[in-house]
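[Q] Does anyone have a clean structure-token version of this?
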Amino acid sequence: NTFFVGHSIGCQTILRYLESLPTNKKVGGVIFVAGWFTLMNLKTDQEKEIAKPWLETPIDFEKIKQHTQKFFAVFSDNDEVVPQDNKKLFEEKLGAKTAIEHDRGHFSGSDGVKELPIVLEQILSL
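[A] Here you go.
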């Protein structure tokens, strides 16, 4: 009955947490908002330094999929840091259902995003 919802680097955190669980532990599902395996337009050395270990450390997707088969990932068509190819990667690597929202940036408050109904809909459907 446990569901995880993560945004951006939080999605990486959830993936790596699931990867570390014992095989017999199950979760209800995972929702990723602006999750990524690749990034673009990192501007500062600090941003690049923070992202580097997350980008370079391999992920065992088979281990992750032992804990749930229910993954949903939502992306924006104008996210400045998460390239659109991540949608296909989430589908291929996790079998995730995916969606693209129009003009939501990186889904932050500074992008004007205060609610994300698609996430609630997906949680209820999982």
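[Q] Thanks! Anything notable?
[A] The radius of gyration is 14 Å.
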